[in-house]
Amino acid sequence: MQENKVARIKNTLISICLVFIIGAVCMMLIGYNPAEAYRELLKGMFAGSLNMGTTLEKFTPVILTGLAFVVSMKAGFMNMGVEGQLSLGAITAAWLGIELQGIFPGTVVTLICIVAGGLAGAAWSLIPALLRVYLNANEICTTILLNYVATLFTTYLCLYPLYGQEAVAQTAKIDNEILLSYFLKPSKANSGIVIALILLVCFALFYKKTRLGFLIKSVGDNPGFSECIGINTKKYMIIAVLFSGMLGGIAGSIEILGVYTRFINGFSNNIALYGMLAALISGGSFLALPLYSFLIAALKAGALGMERFTGLPDSLIDILIVLFILFVTMNGLFEFRTFRRKNRKEEAKE
Fold this sequence. Notes:
This protein has 350 residues and is mainly α. The chain is 76% helix and 0% strand.
């Protein structure tokens, strides 16, 4: 087990080096100075309160959506619908934030918005969960298709019944007293990061220490055996998916209450995709998930500074992230080759 962890860390470090080497070659081919570009990339990640705050701002939704994917993955359910759950959680938080302002104290409204956003995400995730357990529908297809339904529905809501009378499709602004508190100003880093980290620890302990968490993992590891020994696999898969949808909805609520202050059509910008990628390259590990999430968030934040000061498009960073994920997921192939070489050496000695 210890050897596997060491090999995984080594593979990650090698992957990072390879990705930056490939990135440097690409920059030189199109006429840019890699040293200057990477310097601006690092400055955009960490230099000053604005840049560091932007990294933490982007870290929060990535880790929450990644956690949403991991939670359902533990039960053997690939929840590709976190994007839709995030959007519905966001529009719910925006709607309640507008409707309840002035009726209750700001802190109470904030709490209601976050909880309601989580419930909206959970309710939406129930649809593919029921389709999977009772009709054996492929959850990858159903969740991806439901993303389109959720996104278009929220577009309708912010264009018509919740339209904020602005030039773009968005709701009205939420009062400042309802918004999450900020730090590292003038960035939008907010107290939502504390909520995200608390939820990460809670779910890590839930799967490690509780009976319910153990049963959910049993269903994901071996559903046939779990069914044979009397575990209600349908029930525990649905519970895991509801937890996953709830986390997606909370991620959307935090984005609205902490970053955008209103629902803006198309605000998510593939947040859930990056969270899902962080979950996949972490292998479902609650310990590795925040590390990979932070790396992705830092690269996304640094890309803004790199583009501003060097002219390099931030899409180059998206390419580097994809390459990094590709190299990390090749870890099993490298281990297999190492294992074969060891076997050949042992056979030669014999």
